[in-house]
Amino acid sequence: MTITCLHGGRIVDPANEINEIKDLYFEKNKIISKPPSTSKNKIKKIDVNGKIVLPGLVDLRTHLKNITSGQSENILSGTRAAAAGGYTTILLMPDILPRADNPGTIQFIQDRILKHACVKVLLCGCLTKDAKGESLAPLGSLKEIGVAAISDCPRTTQNNQIFTKGVEYASMFDLLVIDLPRDISLSRNGSAHDGPLALKMGLGGYPRMAEELYVQRAISISKSVKTKIHLTSISSHGSVEMIRAAKEKGILISADVTPHHLSLNEDCITEFNPNFKMSPPIREEIDRNALVEGLLDGTIDCVSTAHEPFQEHEKNMEYDLSPPGVIGLETALSACYQNLKGCKEFSWLKLIDSMSYNAAKILEINSGTLSVGTNADIVIFDPELKWKYNNKNRLSLAANTPFENREFKGKVEKTFVDGKLAFGILD
Amino acid sequence: MDTFTWKRKNLLGIEELSCIEITQILDLAKQFKKEMECDNLEKDYLRGKRIVNLFMEPSTRTRIAFEVAAKSLHADVITVAEQSSSLTKGESLCDTAKNIQALGADAIVLRHSSPGSPLFLSRIVDVPIINAGDGAHEHPSQALLDLYTLQDRLGTVEGKKITILGDILFSRVARSNFWALSKMGAKVTLAGPSTLVPKQFESMGAKVCHNLKEALQGADAVMLLRIQHERQSSSHFPSLAEYTAIFGLNKDRQKWLKKGALILHPGPVNRGVELDSELADSSQSVILDQVSNGIAVRMAILYLCTYKQGVRNSL
User: Residues 36 to 95 of B: which have CB under 8 A from any A CB?
Assistant: First the structure.
């Protein structure tokens, strides 16, 4: 039996608080301890000197949309993009066609995943039927068929009664509810952060308040029902403060932020480029700073990509008519590393905690760790490699990225899923 | 006339223009107007040029003024309105524009409800794009004709108090006028209900005022904007009657203005709502001057953006 040894790299394993240069061994699909020198097993050494060895990343928000026609993305292209970005587990949001609000559809998607996926794909079921926010989806049956969480994302259930009952009902099955905090009445025509820039450009504003009201809703409901609620794609500095205060009181709220909101500020939209249009919008520098600070101090639990693929003709149109959403799986780690490494509070352990172990803990899956005995979901990252993200190296079928031709320093070199190479080349 | 230094292919907005460029357009417009009045316009500047008016939103004044302007310069003009185009069949703006270019257009004049759509088109097609109003973003030809009208009557706008009153939030006219007037040294006040005139406009350098008397006092000119009641009456102010009661300009309130102050309106006017009918027709109203000046200004714009540069740099 062949054992693989990743030799000479820096192991960053937040679950075990390890950040040191040492060898990592795996056999078949499991991470193992260093075999005794008397072992007869053949050891295949991969030299990873100067590289960082990480647990596979976990994404809590991936959209693949119409997976059957697969023009903007399909399971294969989406998971190949995930592997290229170091993701070994992704949570697929329910806005697929057909919509994931019933066990039959979930089964159908699971079959597709079995055939085509090259990373682990967990499914998120709808909170309400057709994600319309009008009546609850069959959450118990969805749980039985195997969904890992519940959400209407990228929609948001506006009716407080339905949302509260949904959270309460889901808690009976220990189902995590993920909410994109957004008041629609305040943000319906909002295609940019509601501030002086949007005003000058004549764009409808999406105010911070539209998010913060629903962050407060989640906090109040979580406190009252005494159950976890996860807030996805936090964008406003006010939200960070509210979540921090709620956590201090022991309320079971968790939150994530996208790499884009950590990397960009609203100035990116001045050319009306729809590849910078997302929901929630990119806000001001004060928000970006608060999000970075919140991630590094643990207020924001993790980074989620909100990867949302569109075909060129769907996205490249008049800015206000273009649908919000950008792709992010392939650039997430590079973008986060690049934008956070200069911060005083930055450490590899914190970054990987937020992109892997913490997300796994929120989903309550045994992942995001390099502990002996766990699955060999491993990423090798070259922190020195300079590269540009563009058509030449893109694995996603969609190109709606805000990081087109952006130069990054640091790139995922190899990704192993259950010990098998899912991205990269073996020498 | 002096040699032009005009370098732009497109006219997308006023924000990006320099004072020199604004002055160039207006000087040329003045010359065109004079020649038209004396009936000795050299008529063939745009002969053989094909100008396409792509109007995706309803328009009377702007569309006709661009048509008249282009025809006065002997261009061939084709007007495409949304209802008569393949956009109603689901064709994208991008494809429509590419087809129009393929059909031999030398310039596209675009009116569209999406902010930034002229910039979007300018990246797709090679021909000059002239913005005839993009959502709530800019309406450069309107601002230029307003500035022309004001300069014509006041001599200069430098140091003058100009109040723009009404729905500023949804108005491209207000934004373009703000840029044009403030670049030329006017003191611009944006006035109206707080929901339609957010304080954040101050970050652009405007004075924001929610008190009508204060906004009008000492003004050399007031520019009224149409209240788009079909759009905001439910969420941004209680009713048209309330708007008229608090912000409508009438004979009594006219006294707050500087004596002889000009009244402008880009049209269409809601008589009796934002402006008293009597005032609209008074000697201080320059509303119809605005419209006729619009032809000369648009002739200048079309000439500068489409006339083959380098062949003839001066008139």
Answer: 92-94
Task: State phi, psi for A20 to the nearest 5 degrees.
Answer: -155, 160
Inter-chain touch A271–B204, beta carbons under 8 Å = no
Strand ranges (E), A97-136: 120-125
Question: For A334, phi and psi rounded to 5 degrees?
Answer: -60, -45
Burial-class residue A327 by CB neighbours within 10 Å (0-12, 13-18, 19+).
buried
| Angle between the N-to-C axes of helices A208-225 and A160-172, in degrees from 0 to 180, rounded to the nearest 10 | 40
Dihedral (Cα; B272, B273, B275, B277), 10-degree rounding = -10
Instruction: Reply yes or no: is the peptide bond before residue B268 cis, omega within 30 of 0.
Output: yes
**Residues on A contacting B at a C-beta cutoff of 8 Å:** 195-196, 199-203, 271-272, 313, 316-321
**Complex ipTM:** 0.91
- B/e letters for B103-128, b = 16+ CB within 10 Å, e = fewer, are eebbbbbbbbebbbbbbbbbeebebb
CATH 3.30.70.2740 assigned to A56-363? no
Task: Tell me how close the Cα of B41 comes to any Cα of chain A, in angstroms.
Answer: 38
- Is the CB of B6 inside 8 Å of chain A's CB atoms? no
DSSP category for residue B275: B
Q: A319 vs B114: CB contact, 8 Å cut-off?
A: yes
B203 reaches A (C-beta below 8 A): yes
> For residues B274 and B84, which has the higher predicted lDDT (pLDDT)?
B274
- Whether residues B116 and A321 touch (CB distance < 8 A) is answered with no
Distances (CA, A) of A150 to A120, A140, A299, B18: 18, 11, 22, 54
Name the residue of chain B whose CA is nearest to A320's CA: B114
**A364-367, long-range: CB within 8 Å, 24+ apart, which pairs?**
A364/A174, A364/A176, A365/A58, A365/A89, A365/A122, A365/A148, A367/A55, A367/A56, A367/A58, A367/A88, A367/A89, A367/A120
Parse chain A into domains and list their residue ranges: 56-363
**pTM score of the predicted model:** 0.94
Average of per-residue pLDDT values in chain A: 96
Instruction: Write down the number of H helices and E strands in chain A.
Output: 14, 20
For chain A, how many residues are written?
427
Chain-chain contact of A320 with B119 (C-beta, under 8 angstroms): no
Hey, what amino acid is at A246? Answer: A
Question: Cβ contacts (< 8 Å) between A313 and chain B: which residues?
Answer: 92, 94
Element (H, E) at B36: helix B19-37
Token match 């709808």: residue? Answer: A126
Phi, psi (degrees; rounded to nearest 5) at B292: -70, -35
Q: What is the pLDDT of residue B43?
A: 65
Chain B residues with beta carbon closer than 8 angstroms to that of A195: 200
Please name the residue that has the structure tokens 């997300």.
A359
Q: What is the pLDDT of residue A66?
A: 78
The span from the CA of A177 to the CA of A167, in Å, is 6
Point out the residue among B172, B201, B203 whose CB comes nearest to the CB of A202. Answer: B172
Closest in A200, A313, A318 to B120, CB measured: A318
Which residues touch B153 (CB under 8 Å, ≥6 apart)? B262, B286, B289
Q: pLDDT per residue over A282-307, tens digit each? A: 999 999 999 999 999 999 999 999 99
Name the minimum distance, in Å, from the CA of B200 to any CA of chain A.
6
Domains and CATH numbers, chain B: 19-138+293-306 (3.40.50.1370), 140-291 (3.40.50.1370)
Q: With an 8 Å Cβ cutoff, are A317 and B135 in contact?
A: no
